[in-house]
Amino acid sequence: FDTSAPETVDPSSVPQPKDDFQEELVIRPLHSGDIYASFQFRTVWETDFMRGNKVSHYRLFPKSLGQVISKFSVRELHISFTQGYWRTMQWGQPFQPSPPGAELWVWFQDSAECKVYAAGCVDGTWKELTNVLSGIFCASLNFIDSTNTVQPSASFKPLGIGNETDHRFLRYATLPREIVCTENLTPWKKLLPCGSKAGLAVLLKSEKLFHSSFHSQAVHIRPVCQDWQCKTTSWELRQTLNVVFDLHNSAQGKREWSLFKMFSRTLTEACPLASSSKIYIDITDNPQGEQFEVSPATPLLSQAVVLGDRRTFSVYDLTQQITFGTVRSLNLLIRWKSSEGDMLRPLLHAERYVAGYGLQTGEIHTLMYNNHPYRSFPVLLLDSVPWYLRLYIHTLTVTSKGKDNKPSYIHYQPSKDRLRPHLLEMLVQLPPNSVTEVTVQFERALLKWTEYTPDPNHGFYVGSSVISSLVPSIVAMDTNSTRERPLFSSFFPCKEESSYFVRVYTEPLLVNLPTPDFSMPYNVICLTCTVVAVGYGSLYNLLTRSFQIEEPSPGLAKRIANIIRKMRGVPPL
Amino acid sequence: CLSERRRGQLAALSIAAVVIIVGVPLWWRTTETYRAWLPVNQINELANLQLQLSADVEVVFARGTVTPEQQKKVPTQVVISLCLFCSSPLEADLSLHTLSESPCGSLVVYVIPESSTLLPEDVDVYIGQRRTALLRIGAQMRVGRTLEQLLAHLEPRIKQVLQVMSFSHTDITAALSDRVRLSPGNKESIADSMRAFKSSPGYEITFSLLNPDPKSHRVHWDIEGAVQTYIQPLLTKLAPLANFSIDSQTLYYAMLGVNPRYDSSRSAYTLNSDSLAHVINPVEARLGSNAASSNPVLNFLLYVPDAHHSPLHIHDHKKQEVLSNAFHSPRWGGIMVYNVNGFYGPEAVFPVDININMAKVMGVFLAQLRLLLGVQSSAPPPGFLVAPCSSTGLADWELDRLMWSRTVENVATATTTITSLAQLLDQIGNIVINDNIAQQVSSAVTSLQLAVAELEAGNLGFALQYSKEAILASERAFFDPSLLHLLYFPDDQKFAIYIPLFLPMCVPILLSLLKIVSEARQKRRERQAKKD
């Protein structure tokens, strides 16, 4: 073998890798005493998955996801698994919103073969894709079929580059029943270049993460611009994990948090493959340190505009050895001094419930709150309701402040039994400082006995409503998408300075359907057979028996007399 | 009164008739499972199939190998003058190839005179890179006077050539060994057949660079270029056999499953051959399955040991270092350990940039790939000289050899699949056989028959094509989900459901029939008695 080739090289001759990995953790102490930790891992790769281009050599980007993008011509893929419900009024807006259960939305490329027969072609690909993803993430995504898939016309626009807005290439589905646990976290961690061996990912121990009030993990894949002119495109894989630890459950009621207390681990190094590895602690509400203190202290401060607000963060750069100090380990400590102070009320939030009684009809109420004191803004409401709740769309009412509020845009697609769900999208203007109520009545359908879930008396889930909106911003938003920014502030692209994008999910609904007794089919068969047999028996008797007139039998005295006469040998009477 | 009795009997009889003529067939029809027609006879014929393989061998005599009187009897003038200016057999081989293009599966044997200097002294047979062989005519072969005698003399040699270049008995038994129980052959050929991947319409080849220590080593490999240079030519050559797709990935913090032992005498870490079996499992969890297809995956791992466990050497059974520092796992792939500690000094600043010498790596992987694909390089019999590998890494006749055994294997696989499916369907009457399954089964049977016929005719290319189609169709029929639907619907439950209807209906009918019969019998007895 030829070993004369130079094997070590000076760094200048090494080709610049075309992929880049960043990791960061944002910790936001919440006024309720809970703590919110948000992990973001971003891999950006300068490559082209578009137009059937075959990509086969992977470095930092995970091969399994790359193959999925290539095979199914995916333009954008967003998948999230969430356990628990995000309490907007207590915790504020999350960095990446997600509904309880599993959510999957995918934009497909308008490849040549799918152009003509878009619907059928994309439907087939979608079915295959959900099956493959359920294998990759160990989740029951294979339960996604045409009865819970919709094609929203306005609510889910592509987050990456691309002006494709033909919603025939979009598929959206939620599984509100999906339970998220360790088996979903392990494959998610495996997609990271450093796995859970180094960097921030060592903190992701499942026994702690799932012992929390809220857990949400997500994967977002989209094409992004490489530079300001957007001459070349890159593919971005963003893996996010949001978790809220409960004050009473995880901290035994003491308002004191540390990395070790949250994750039962401390940090000793950054992932060697990461070009940036940072921890941000939100200290906006704590400028002089009167609310809580953070130790070890860091001289680095950073300001970022996120969710319409300018926030200040303490920054810990893990790529610098000095961050770990003399003990070579970083265990951040946040100790609350006072429990006073109030959170800024989120400008937009929503809730939903089912009203009505009995098992025949009901009414869905959706409440949307605009807490802005003087600005009104429009919101897009998306509702996807399963077919077995038959919506009476003529009963749809939208009221704000006691007055009728006419939506400026309504897109309604009625359901087809066992084929597709209802899709209701509308654009509603929310007046300032108001509650807008959307109600619609429905009727419960009777299912076939094989269509019931194994525990039908638990009820049937209806996925969260999605409310998307451009909320007026207090500070000017940053519209330059390529500038170096913390990852958590760069997820939703920002088109104008005066407003920012927010997506809010309501609670999923749990609706009882009329549930039969499941031994019924056998009972029905037996009863019918018995009835038929009884009817048949009498008919048969009528037809086959011959009837004869019989002499009435003689009385008792006469019979006894006859016996005596017989004994005497005299002829009977 | 009698006519009344008669009417009752008639009513009972007609009800029984209606039940038997209308009711029972109606019930039978409505509860019957749909079973499409299957070509059972042809499938049974397949079960005891006689395979006959034939290869075209063309024997060409060079000038000076046949006497004039023998030459007269040669039907056409195929005697040619053989490359006068060639000095080496390689050149002769190439020039002969341009002379005649032989189709896939056939052979051309050129008989050259004893005095020819083309071949070295002790070599009688030279096997080229294409489908040609040079055969030196021996002195004792020239004794025959007629052409037939000459050919009879040549026959054993040509048989040997055929066994090397096309197929031998052991090849075929090895190909069949998984499907058909045969008398155990020699151990080596069985091991050979177990090493190679099963025949499949496609393979995924994955190269993985395992870097357990990215803090110390920043490893770069030009896999794209290496695949283009070393692997792609071989795969292009193998394209008629199967579809191949190649990808690569880099895995960080991927550890081997065993802790290597430190050997102070060599100041190196060693992996013993008996611990190699435990290396793969923990690594495999990181490799990830192929999301985009269900073809078998061939894994090739390049392991760069971490700085604290370098250098790492693999030792064989005799405690000797393995030169290539690599090993392969049958039907799984290969692993190569690539030590990099020699390329930087003790004062190096970590992380060190390291460029991998792809020529060295790909040499090992290519050899492993050949083994795993079943390209056998068994030692030729004495007196044979095999041409060196061409740039594609595979001679034409090696491809043919592979195609022969793969075709036989495909035919055997498809046959067992179809016969076991037919057996299963025969045994369990409850399974619904849809039309599409019947169609797949018929097309598999047709393709199989065609493949067998083409094998007999010696058309290797067509035979392989048909055998592939047969495999695809038979697997599709066998794994069709509709076959599972009624599998667990036992008869006793079915009858439990019908009994509430059947029992009350049938008992009166039976009773009245019995009564009618006994009355008729009694009447006849009375008539008999009256006669007497």
TrEMBL record, chain A:
GO terms for cellular component: GPI-anchor transamidase complex. InterPro entries: PIG-T. One of its GO terms (biological process) is attachment of GPI anchor to protein. Signal peptide: none annotated. This is Phosphatidylinositol glycan anchor biosynthesis, class T.
From TrEMBL, chain B:
Its main location: endoplasmic reticulum. It is a multi-pass membrane protein. Keywords: Endoplasmic reticulum, Glycoprotein, GPI-anchor biosynthesis, Membrane, Transmembrane, Transmembrane helix. The keyword Transmembrane applies. One of its GO terms (cellular component) is GPI-anchor transamidase complex. Pathway: Glycolipid biosynthesis; glycosylphosphatidylinositol-anchor biosynthesis. The keyword Transmembrane applies. It comes from the Eukaryota. The chain crosses the membrane at residues 10-28, 495-517. GO terms for biological process: attachment of GPI anchor to protein; GPI anchor biosynthetic process. PANTHER family: GPI TRANSAMIDASE COMPONENT PIG-S. This is Phosphatidylinositol glycan anchor biosynthesis, class S.
